[in-house]
Structure prediction request, 445 residues.
Amino acid sequence: MTPAEAIHNLQQISWKEWRQLLASGHRHLESHGVQIQDSVVPYDPWPRVIHGADWDGLCAGISQRHRAINCFVADVYSRQLILKDGVIAREDIEGSPLWQSDLQGLFPPDHCWCLINGLDLIGGSRQGWRVLEDNLRRVGGHGYAIRIREASLAAGLPQNSAQSPRPVQQGLQQLRAALHQLCSHQDDPLIVLLTPSTISTEISEHRFLAAAMGIALARPEDLYCDQNRVFLRQNGQNLPVDVIYRRNEDRIGRESDGSSAWLGVPGLQRVAAARNVQIANLPGAGIGSDKALYRHVGAMIRYYLGEEALIEQVPTFSCQEPKELEHVLHHLNQMVVKPVDGAGGFDMLHGPTASAAECDAMTASLQAHPERFIAQPAQMLHTLPTLIGEQLKHCAVDLRPVSLLGNTPQVLPGALTRVAPPGSSIVNLNRGGSLKDTWILDDAA
Prediction:
């Protein structure tokens, strides 16, 4: 079945049925404890539909981008060839708040720093896809994508087998296999998903992923380092840890010498440097998703892979450049301004909908600390029908696919479609909105 046929069938569903689907999906998520920020994950039953051939082409571009960014991160923390060859200015790296100079030389040039990447994509098959940003620090979303698919199936979507989208559940096995490959000499490595705490806003996704992949869930205080190994305290035992899938900040707490501790576990940096534990993604990998360096990804792809980028990206202004800052300030009502190390939709300005007071405050911030911000022209986002109260309204959406490196670069099946609140172009659950299932449909044989 083609996407057009699937959408036609969706349009035949009555308003009463849509409300029933919404209620059924919500009950499923509630009964399974699928939450974010202590509330049931907001679900919308109208799915996003993508043709299988379009998705496969998109995946090639996602993997290409991921490979180049990992090469870049490994290079700048080792030989720094891209800086020596003048492709990227040294001050662009060393001036980044995400640059961690003490990690340079810690690992060999071919080390995997960025096993996982979560991209934010806008656009679609007709108008073309564009990368809005990469996320390399606390990569998540795939657990929610699977949970949303489960909610859709529980609610009764798709309503006939001819509409069945590609399954997403096997992504869990792919993620676990990629984590295992980091420690391939072990037949049965102990893999730990490291959560900030049991009150993390995303703890339900962390619990689901750990249980579904058969790996341990731990907080920083559950781990300790001794004799150049990391151990997990569990059920009265001290178990040696081989791989950490981290979902917390790079540096939390202190070492005995007063320096900051990796992931809140004193001694972890020393153990990782000795290659006695593998971490996905490594602290320091965030330099590859610095929003000020985002505009150089095309150059990274050419430099490391000898290829042209397969996916376009949004034009980006570096506010530390005087001429670019001047342009941004003169067109602030047409810009989206973000901190270079921002995440979660916080501390940003959406010029077209910002108040005069918000624009004035951002102007002051840009003038005081221009190096902390980038700006992008506000984009027209793809919209999809979304149940809002007693109406179906078109709301802006983006797409969060998750890609993996390893023996074979791959993109996890399916993706999370995130929905902005009505009238907004800011797609982030911290700003409201909801989540949709993403259907990858192939033509019938």
About this structure: The mean pLDDT is 93. Residues 170-280 form a domain with the Rossmann fold fold (CATH 3.40.50.11290).
